[in-house]
Amino acid sequence: xxxxxxxxxxxxxxxxxxxxxxxxxxxxxxxxxxxxxxxxxxxxxxxxxxxxxxxxxxxxxxxxxxxxxxxxxxxxxxxxxxxxxxxxxxxxxxxxxxxxxxxxxxxxxxxxxxxxxxxxxxxxxxxxxxxxxxxxxxxxxxxxxx
Length: 146
Fold this sequence. Notes:
Arc Repressor Mutant, subunit A, 6 helices, globular
């Protein structure tokens, strides 16, 4: 599975919101600056995440974006599916795909389905809270230079 730039930026935005969960709405310009995401592109990404039910957004000076649920309740799988649509490494492995005439006989599909199942399991077991905690730990770890 290769993630698009949209998904990469979206995951970083969600991570920023997870780290600041409970502090109220955060302006998209602040998210863009802190995560080095182009502001215009971020607007589109945040809209996709809002439509997927992962964010609440409000306008105005007290507006901004915040997670729709606690970071412990949002999995990486849910976030990637909201942004990417599928985790399948090949179109034929996607359960929604019906276009391949060899679908039921293809041995490659069997392997791609196994890869997708393993990927989905890892992503489903990883929450935004897990990632936020890991990021905070990395930032707190001392850096040694030799």
